[in-house]
Design a protein that fits this description.
- The chain is an all-alpha fold and 322 residues long.
- Helix content is 81%, strand content 2%.
- The strands form 2 sheets. It has a two-stranded antiparallel ribbon with strand order 1-2. The chain has a two-stranded antiparallel ribbon with strand order 3-4.
- The chain is globular.
């Protein structure tokens, strides 16, 4: 039992450091082309911090552990929103630009509607569903590139001078090395997380919704805290919302396309599948509670952060009691 725990911890460290390097490299390259901060957070940084979820879910699905692939995607959205974003909002609430949020929020709830529709009607995620999700990912990236070009033209954004930040070769090295660490860390996390779950007698879906989801969301947490310290709130919020969207359209899309799976039925609430009664509704509720007031009022409040933290605590407690 000690060896799996140690290897699980090593996997988490690799994921964190790999995500950190990947984000640094990707952000450095993106800034050279004058991309706006919030859009960088919702695209380049989000892709980097979502890579752990992609690797974990894909590896899990291919190895026959669909429960981890499914639970990790939903659990990561809940963790990103009700823990990571909640901490930043509770500590330093601030104004947001509703116009910049509309695109990723609209895509998220469209993807969530499709995801929930499949879950409640068939309970089976087929390759067709995976292709639809990946198609939405491509559509979102295309729409965001168009938005970036429009935004850059309007603000006459200039590329970062070569003398600022890291050199281009160093950014590329960070990008590649970060991706490699993420791949190794994800493999260690899945293999040893499964062993720990079996040893403790805890369903894999619960482990995925809590420990694995938190572990793969640590890059988002590191990004959020760093952004908060440096005063880049837009980067942090954009990262969380972008990462949540990618968890549905990219993480689930890739894993389902490679290895279709059914919704796990390891636990029930009042005789019904706990995932349908608890997990998906909580995912939708916390995202709505975070984003809809921001779209309407153009700002976030400490009350939102505190309430979301309470929801996350209650969610984790319920997971281990049902």
């Amino acid at each position: 039992m000690l060896v799996p725990v140690l290897l699980f911890a090593v996997g988490l460290v690799f994921l964190i450091k790999g995500g950190d390097w990947f984000v640094d490299g990707a952000t450095g390259i993106a800034r050279r082309f004058g991309l706006p901060e919030l859009l960088i957070g919702a695209t380049v940084v989000s892709i980097g911090t979502t890579l752990p979820e992609v690797m974990v879910s894909t590896t899990s699905a291919l190895s026959g552990h669909g429960e981890i692939a499914y639970g990790n995607a939903i659990g990561s959205v809940i963790c990103n929103t009700a823990l990571i974003a909640a901490i930043t909002v509770a500590v330093r609430p601030g104004k947001v630009d509703p116009k910049s949020l509309r695109l990723p929020v609209a895509f998220f709830f469209t993807a969530a509607a499709i995801y929930a529709g499949v879950a409640y009607t068939t309970g089976y995620f087929s390759r067709t569903t995976g292709f639809i999700m990946l198609g939405m990912f491509c559509a979102y990236m295309a729409a965001t590139v168009w938005q970036m070009k429009s935004h850059s033209a309007a603000r006459s954004a200039a590329p970062q001078p070569e003398g600022e930040g890291n050199s281009m070769p160093k950014d590329v090295v960070l990008l590649v090395a970060g991706a490699a660490l993420i791949a190794v860390g994800a493999d260690l996390l899945v293999d040893n997380g499964t062993l720990i779950a079996k040893a403790l007698g805890v369903p894999e879906s619960v482990i995925a919704l809590t420990f694995v989801a938190l572990g793969t969301s640590l890059p988002e947490l590191v990004t959020a805290v760093t952004s908060l310290i440096k005063g880049h709130g837009a980067l942090s919020l954009g990262n969380v919302i972008g990462a949540n969207l990618f968890n549905l359209v990219l993480v689930s899309g890739v894993s389902v396309t490679l290895a279709p799976f059914s919704i796990p039925r390891s636990s029930t609430i009042a005789g019904h599948n706990a995932s349908l009664v608890l997990d998906i509704p909580v995912m939708l509720a916390v995202m709505a509670f975070l984003t809809l007031p921001a779209l309407k009022r153009g700002k976030l409040s400490r009350f939102q952060g505190a309430a979301l933290l309470l929801v996350y605590g209650a969610f984790c407690v319920i997971q281990f009691t049902i």
